[in-house]
Write a structure and sequence with these properties.
335 residues, alpha/beta, TIM Barrel, eight-stranded parallel barrel, two-stranded antiparallel sheet, 11 helices, 16% strand, binds flavin mononucleotide
Length: 335
């Protein structure tokens, strides 16, 4: 088990073991995106679970970038003092925590977000394959696209002021940056559509804006949706080769951390560690950038096997840790 409990340092921040708590939306905010007592109660067990690093659920960078009504927002400075309590739960326990920052684009889940005929914007006017709302989004103009990096970098600045160790840019699970990456939702013929270097352009612009705004110290991670289909399925849409290319670019940019999951296929699969075949090949392309592999990891042997085979540097344990906050202590006791 030793490898599971080996520390790792990222940008001078010590992660005491190889177990990451992945972002899991708690749907507990006020309608104005502020954390509530329920949000804090939700995170107390996680902050005490012994995870080496925690990534805190998706925070929308703008009210028009929400997928759910009860989603946390980092869209204005007023949220900072409320967020301090949430970030403080983790810093108080010496656990590095990143705030995940996101824009939903056309992936709207809660109908209540749609008011007065407002329609979401997306790379192309294509109904989102994962949304049950059957909405036709408005195609983003180049001017709309140019606003996005600033929204992310301002949200990142607020997260840092609230006391997080850094941020994670959400480019997975079919949200806006995933919509740009996926040929299923991106049919543009300009500099943001077509080959993967164009589909990934906005993601790189967002990353560069966030890194520039935060300066050198904080951790900047990216959650990358590796493909639109699961490893055992016939490839369609965005492929893992696209993700390998994105990872190699991030390696040149010296990204701090690459958190790997699915894109339009979401985050669910069959069995255990269902993204492992993708994680292995994307890690190869990511060079020195540490990677997290998440999805169906429930047992210590599975987690350890991934690390021993060098398929990732950290394992993400979501639902198993949520349902048993003593899990890491139990794994430690097996040593
Ligand atoms: C209730 C729930 C909420 C989630 N919220 C987020 C989220 O806010 N951001 C994100 O990137 N992934 C989210 N995920 C995906 C998880 O981070 C993780 O990738 C997924 O649960 C697979 O890991 P697991 O099998 O260990 O739970 C969520 C998953 C669940 C079950």
């Amino acid at each position: 088990m030793t490898l599971l409990f080996e520390p790792l340092e990222i940008r001078g921040i010590r992660i005491k073991n190889r177990i990451a708590a992945p972002p899991m939306a708690s749907l507990s905010s006020t309608k104005t995106g502020l954390p509530t007592a329920d949000t804090l109660d939700n995170y107390i067990p996680l902050s005490e679970s012994g995870a080496g690093i925690a990534i805190i659920e998706h925070h929308a960078v703008h009210a028009e970038g929400r997928t759910r009504l009860r989603q946390l927002l980092l869209d204005r400075d007023e949220v900072i003092p409320y967020q301090e309590d949430l970030a403080g739960l983790f810093s108080g326990k010496g656990v590095p925590a990143l705030a995940q920052i996101s824009h939903a684009g056309s992936f709207i889940v809660d109908e209540d977000i749609l008011e007065n005929g407002w329609l979401p914007k997306a790379p192309s006017p294509i109904r989102h394959p994962l949304s049950n709302l059957f909405l036709m989004p408005v195609k983003m103009s180049e001017s709309d696209i140019s606003q996005i990096p600033g929204l992310f970098s301002e949200a990142a600045r607020r997260a840092l002021r609230a006391g997080y160790s850094g941020v994670e840019i959400h480019a997975a699970h079919g949200y806006l940056l995933g919509q740009f990456l996926s040929p299923m939702t991106n049919r543009r013929s300009d500099a943001y559509g077509g080959p993967v270097k164009n589909r990934a352009r906005l993601l790189f612009e967002v990353y560069e804006a966030v890194r520039y705004t935060l300066g050198d110290e904080p951790v900047v991670a990216v959650r990358l949706g590796m493909a639109d289909t699961l490893p055992e399925a016939e490839p369609s849409g965005q492929t893992v080769d696209d993700a390998r290319w994105v990872a190699s670019e991030f390696s040149s940019m010296k990204l701090d951390l690459l958190d790997l999951s699915g894109n339009m296929c979401g985050y669910n699969g069959e069995g255990e560690a269902w993204f492992a075949p993708y994680c292995r090949t994307v890690k190869d392309a990511a060079g020195k950038v540490p990677t997290i592999c998440t999805g169906g990891i429930k047992k210590a042997e599975t987690a350890l096997g991934l690390l021993e085979r060098r398929e990732c540097d950290l394992v993400g344990v979501g639902r198993a840790l949520k349902s048993d906050p003593d899990l890491i202590r139990k794994w430690k006791a097996l040593e």
